[in-house]
Fold each of these.
Amino acid sequence: MQVKLNRQTLALGDEQAQTPILWWLREDRGLTGTRYGCGQGVCGACTVHLDGQAVRSCITPCGAADKRELTTIEGLARGNVLHPVQQAWLELAVAQCGYCQSGQIMGAAALLASTPNPSDEQIDAAMAGHLCRCGTYERVRAAIHRAAQIARTGGAR
Ligand code: FES
Ligand code: FES
């Protein structure tokens, strides 16, 4: 198998085909920005992008990523240039404890890629599967609107 992880092509043995992507990222690749929450596909903490789509890496086997592009929170920025979602998150100080936040950011980035100017309802629907025990939901929603604005205007208010 071959996976393009954060723009780097990597070979994986066939024995890894059934390993959840989350385990491979954290244990083999040392990419611990992707979090383990529930392990059952219900909390969103482990969200990564597979060909630009948000997927739950705890329930997605490595075999599903064969010959595809996998992006984690570590690969979202381009060099020193943060993704608009990351910029907005910092501006609005969204994170509290931070545990759910990489998943939230990856979910938000996937939403904006398909829906560049989402309504509150579209944000709530897309982000409903991201649980935050600190209750950052209002700031998440505001930051997604701000990220959409940054993407449109390059950051001007
Ligand atoms: S750890 Fe994957 S959805 Fe909760
Ligand atoms: S910021 Fe603490 S769980 Fe979301």
Amino acid sequence: MKALCWHGTNDIRYETVPDPEIEHPRDAIINVSSCAICGSDLHLFHHFIPTMESGDVVGHEFMGEVMEVGSENKKLKVGDRIVVPFTITCGECDQCKRGNFSVCERSNRNKSLADKMFGHAGAGLFGYSHLTGGYAGGQAEYVRVPFADSTHIKVPDSLSDEQVLFLGDIFPTGWQAAAQCDIEPTDTVAIWGAGPVGQFCVRSAVLMGAQQVVVIDNVPERLAMAEAGGAIAINFDEESVLGRLQELTKGKGPEKCIDAVGLEAHVSRSPDSVYDRVKQAVMQETDRPHVLREMIYVCRPAGILSIPGVYGGLVDKIPMGALMNKGLTVRSGQTHVKRWSEDLLRRIDEGQIDPSFVITHTADLAEGPEMYNTFRDKQDGCVKVVLKP
Ligand SMILES: [Zn+2]
Ligand SMILES: [Zn+2]
């Protein structure tokens, strides 16, 4: 089959690789109808995530038709149309039973490696390094879905691929980030990053009834899309983020702050980001936490910081004194995708939201390597790319 494979920094190739096969009776093989490039794939593209190996098939946002099921898999049959959550879940361990699917205790087959790095391993993820199980990803013609009787979302034929594809990652990721904020009708919710996840944070916070939703980015197309979704836009190249947030909240600061940027904050003019780039270059720090620092500083005391943005390792100069003395709550995590899927599928079906709004580019899987560049450079108004195998 054909797939997009990782070969190093800025090197994704469209290649022929062996077809996947059923390896366990709970597996299924799907024929991919649509897949997407996620913002967090760029962290792989830039080689910020360790334990990638040359030839790994990438991609963790995909859907398709079931073409083969293992003998123990009673939940799926050939021909079912499913979206595949990026977090692989056994459905049976203590954490899965509690709905904490992204920290499933059984699905990461390289658990000991991740235990060593993080204390406790998280779930296995598709196409996202050997630290998260080394599973082949979904930017491919076919994918083996492990624990497929648990790891799937069945979708009705009445909804298009474009409407449901993002149920596997960016929609529940934005939703969970907003849900973790316990939004109240009097809240101002400030969201750093107007990429695809930031866009879903905006729409989710609006659906949850926030009084004011503010988004911070410097790409005009992304800011315009967020404004269309109900946000007030701050372009950090043109105005002071702190000044404008103070003005919008009468000096009190936003009650809820969401970091939809993560480890590769691109702001380049602030003194702390110069510091981060230097430390990163000499391998004294792995991640660039500019957004985290800014959120801690500006957040209203007793507020909540929600972090859906991906971090990989160590960050430096986090103002712990401000965090503690202001009484801030920090919530984070990979997305417990299945916790939200039923509710979000219903909301799409009822027309409360049509997630296809975020798609700016659709291309053949063969054009994937080129589309990674377009997405990275935000050329041609690119916010979200869907690929068709
Ligand atoms: Zn993702
Ligand atoms: Zn589990």
